[in-house]
Specification:
Blueprint: E1 2-8, H1 9-12, H2 32-47, E2 53-59, E3 61-63, H3 75-85, E4 89-91, E5 98-103, H4 104-118, E6 127-131, E7 136-138, H5 139-150, E8 156-158, H6 178-181, H7 189-206
Parallel strand pairs: 1-2, 2-6, 3-5, 4-8
Antiparallel strand pairs: 5-7
Helix pairs in contact: 3-5, 3-7, 5-7
């Protein structure tokens, strides 16, 4: 069998140098969350050595419909919610901050590909894979994209917060096995973003 660990590319590479980051990049977390994810990678790698095959997926920013809106996470979901409710969304990072977004279903297909590929190979070495779209976008672009979809201005409140110190300005990523997995990237960012908006709009209209 295969043990698949979901790790965080944004968490483990937050303080790393010279993007775009690959599996050859030295991880450097800046937050407790990133440190926890890297520690999980080490624990799994050491304790499951010789027990089963291990695949570690360092996943980019996941997005998609159905997110729990009670949690203050998921920028695209928060942008959609703000556009619908007209409640200002607080943003504490620069608008030129670069991130890689991958649709949840696409990420799942890629993860399954790596699980199937390494199942039963008995490599005795954890396989670390970056699961990302390879198409970085700025926070400013995401705001304009949501406004185009919602056909309304998204209320934004700009400010500063201590947590922004753990947010890297540039988190471009190099997906592992790009030629192998490009066929699994089936959801363009505008289409995925629209699905989020329509999902949240439907929830509010039927509430």
């Amino acid at each position: 069998g295969v043990f698949f660990l979901t790790s965080s590319a944004g968490g483990v590479y937050a303080g790393s140098s010279n993007p775009p980051f690959s599996t050859l990049t030295l991880p450097l977390p800046l937050s407790p969350y990133g440190e926890l994810k890297l520690a999980q990678e080490h624990v799994v790698s050491n304790r499951l050595l010789g027990v089963c095959d291990v695949v570690i997926g360092r996943v980019a920013n996941l997005y998609g419909p159905g997110q729990n809106l009670e949690k203050l996470q998921g920028l695209l979901s928060r942008l959609a919610l703000s556009s619908i409710t007209k409640t200002p969304l607080s943003i504490f990072v620069s608008l030129d901050t670069m991130r890689d977004y991958i649709y949840s279903d696409d990420a799942a297909r890629i993860a399954l590909h790596w699980i199937r590929k390494y199942s039963g190979m008995k490599t005795n070495t954890p396989q670390i894979k970056i699961i990302a779209s390879g198409q970085p976008v700025s926070i400013g672009y995401l705001i304009h994209l949501m406004q185009d979809i919602a056909r309304t201005k998204t209320p934004i409140s700009y400010g500063s917060h201590s947590s922004s110190a753990a947010q890297a300005r540039d988190l471009r990523l190099m997906p592992s096995g790009q030629e192998e997995v490009e066929g699994f990237l089936q959801t363009p960012l505008p289409a995925g973003t629209k699905s989020i908006y329509l999902d949240i709009l439907d929830r509010y209209q039927t509430a």
